[in-house]
Structures are given as C-alpha cells and as structure tokens.
C-alpha cells in the first residue's frame, strides 16, 4: 500500500514539474521571439503537444505560428494551428491574446493568398488592438491591412492604413518602419492618381533610406524613385538610381519595367523588350500588367504586329483573371460597414453608460428628497401635537429645523462639489476639515451599502482614511492619482493603506 502511495506522489510531482517547465519555456519564448525567432523555435521544439492543457495548446499554437511566419514564411501551408488559438482566446482569452491570435491568423491567410479572409481577421484584430496599450501590435496590423488593400486594389483603404502605419511608426520612433511607411503612403497616393502627393512622400522615404539595412527595403525605395524621375522625363536622374545593384535585387520587377520605359524613349527597342520581359517575373500584378502593355506597345513600334497582338491578348486575359479573382470592391464595402458597426457599438456603449449615470443621479436625488420630506412630516407632526401652549418651544423648534435643513443642504452640496472634484482628479489641498467631512457624509448617502460594509470592516477611521477608501475602492485610482488628490507623497499613500489594514476587524 505504501509503495502505491509513493508511486502516486512521484507521478504527481513529475506532472507538476512538467507543467511548470512548459510555462517557463513559453515565458522564455515570448522574451526572444521578436528578435531571435530561431531561439524560440528551439525552446518550443521538444514540447509534448498532446499532453498540453487547452490553454497551453492555444498559447503553443500562437507562438509556433509567430515563429513560422518569422523564420519560414513561404512554408506555411494551412491555418489549423492558429485557428485553435483563435477559437480558445475568443471564448476565454483577454483582449491582447484575442488581438494577437486574429492578427497572426490574418497573416497566415494572407500568406495562403486568401486576402478577403485575411482582411476579416485583421479588422477584428484592429478593433481589439485600438483598446490596448500596445503600439507595436497596432503597427503590425496597420502594415498588414495596407498590404491586403494593395493586393485587393483598394486605393482609399491602402492610403488610410498606410497613413495610420506612418503615424504609429513615428510614435514608436522606428526609423525602419518610418521609411517603409512613407513608401506605402506614396503608393496609396499614386494608386489614387495623386502624383504630387505621392512624389512628396516618396522623396521623404528617400531621406530615411539609411535606416534600412536590408537590400529589399532599400531597393523598393530606389526603384520607385527611379520610376518617379522616369515618368517626369528626367531620364538621366532615373538611370542614376537604376544601378546594377538595384536591378539585381529588384523584388517586384519595377526597376526593369522602369528601365524598359527609359530604353523605349531612347529608341533602343531591343533592350527595352529584354527589360520588359524580365519585369514580367514580378509578383506584383500592377507591374506585370504594365509590362504586358509596354511589350505590346514596343512590338507595335518595332513592326511586329503578331507579337503586339499576342501581348495585348495576354494583357486582357490577365486583367480578366484579376477581375474574376479579385474581391477588392466587395472587401472595401465590407471594411466600411465593419467600421460603421464598430462606431455604432461604441456610441451605444457610451450612451448606455451616460444613461446609467444620469439615472443613478436621479434616483439618488429622489431618495434624498423623499428622506427630507419624511423627516419634515415627522417634525411637522411633532409641532402639531405640541399645541398652542408651547408656541415658544414650537418657534424654537422651527428655527432649529430651518437651520438643520440649511446645514444638511450646505453639507450635501459641499460634499457633492468635492466628490465631483475628486472624480475629475483635482487635488483637495485647499479643502477644510469640515469640507472633507462633508465629502465623507455625502458619500455615505451616495453609497449606503459600501459605507455600511466599511463600518463593519474597519474601526475608528479618520476622515482622511475614509477619503482614501473612496479614492481606492470606489473610484479605483492608482497610488499616483491618490497622492496627487490628497497632496501627499506616494510613500504616504502606502503608509495610509497599511494603517487602514491594521484597523480592519478580524
């Protein structure tokens, strides 16, 4: 029997240690995942997934998805792992985990070329992230939404999220993202036909190019600047930016398309055709369409009508395929309706809160009026019972009643004023002892149940200590705000809290 008990205890300890080790690995992975995702992969590699609890499996799915995106983006084949995290956090998680899960599922769907579904997840993530104090998460969501709307051919939304990305990047003081953001804003203005604004932002991105240490990022800016000068007719300056290095590292073929246009203007058609063909390898549908149209024009200028016709036909087929596959306009409408619904929800939420505050105030006022009238009826009854023989006593009693009413009204009014000042986080340094007592008395009328609970829990509290409880337990202010209102140091706030705890009844 003893052996069985020992074995059971040992198994329990092993399971507990295993769970603790899993939690530690998750914590370590969170610490390194942004800067060293490969290290995070090593930490997560030997975790026994089937033995994980549901909450641990959700966290594991989120972490592994982040690692896959950061280390081997092109190898992502499905969204099953991150979907488990989304489903769990949607029911049990806090807003931050929900936003993270929706964001990374959107990234996965974007990688799988399912842009409409990616936008839906990213919009949900955006709504949650707007309520959080996480600028980095918002920055990532804005960037991804800008990319999605670029590929969906939604210029207004591309510009909207590019500008939000730029503003967020400046808040973070992230030079790399500022450079990329200016380029994306320029793309948004260009897509809307606002060339002047696009050129201004493109030149601003050029001012930040030294912050980019990756060839693709620098190349994107340089080949766009080259295209800008080529469209302006400044061929010499355009060619200055189209160096061999830029052409070699062109990620979307734009540099070769620009060079093809330059060679066309120079009358070097064979070279222009060669460059245009290289630009067809771009994974950017706009550059691909531009290159097909350019090839058709070049073949026509060279007198090769059959090739020109073939390129025109390919361009039309490519455009038709984009129209049939692209749900950009539908997604633009969906995003606008989604934003409108979120605004309506926010308005109704604020309206409900304000209505509750007003209703509570009216109920409190009714209670005070009822209580006052009830006391007046009692006093009037006493006066009527005294008779004419006690006219002098009745006169004195009336005077006392009047004075008491004035004192009560004055006290409640002062208490209400001070309570409003406290709610606005204004200091009480200039309030007298009587005024502070008025605040306590007013609160006792305002929150009778809480007041009764305090009287039951604590013994012999001072006026200042009761005000401390109002700020801490009712208004839920932090120590810094309480210290500001009471005009004391934060250390005094902690001391006061300790003294109040000592007076708590056991």
Account of the protein in words:
The radius of gyration is 35 Å and the shape is elongated. 32% of the residues are buried. The protein is built from 24 helices and no strands. The protein has helices spanning 2-32, 37-45, 54-71, 80-92, 95-111, 115-129, 135-151, 155-172, 175-191, 195-207, 215-231, 235-241, 244-248, 254-265, 269-279, 285-301, 305-325, 328-386, 391-423, 433-446, 448-457, 463-474, 479-486, 490-502. Among the domains are: 214-326, Serine Threonine Protein Phosphatase 5, Tetratricopeptide repeat, CATH 1.25.40.10; 334-502, no CATH class. It is mainly alpha-helical and 506 residues long. Helix content is 80%, strand content 0%. The model is unreliable at 5-19 (pLDDT under 50).
Q: In percent, how much strand structure appears in the residues?
A: under 5%
Helix content: over 70%
Terminal Cα span: 43 Å
Rough outline: elongated
What's the number of helices?
24
Instruction: Compute the CA-based radius of gyration.
Output: 35 Å
Question: How can the largest sheet be summarized?
Answer: none
Look at the structure and give the mean pLDDT.
Answer: 80
Structural class, from helix and strand content? mainly alpha
Task: Name the helix and strand elements from N-terminus to C-terminus, one letter apiece.
Answer: HHHHHHHHHHHHHHHHHHHHHHHH
- Please mark out the parts with pLDDT under 50 across 5 or more consecutive residues, or reply none: 5-19
Q: Could you tell me the number of beta strands?
A: 0
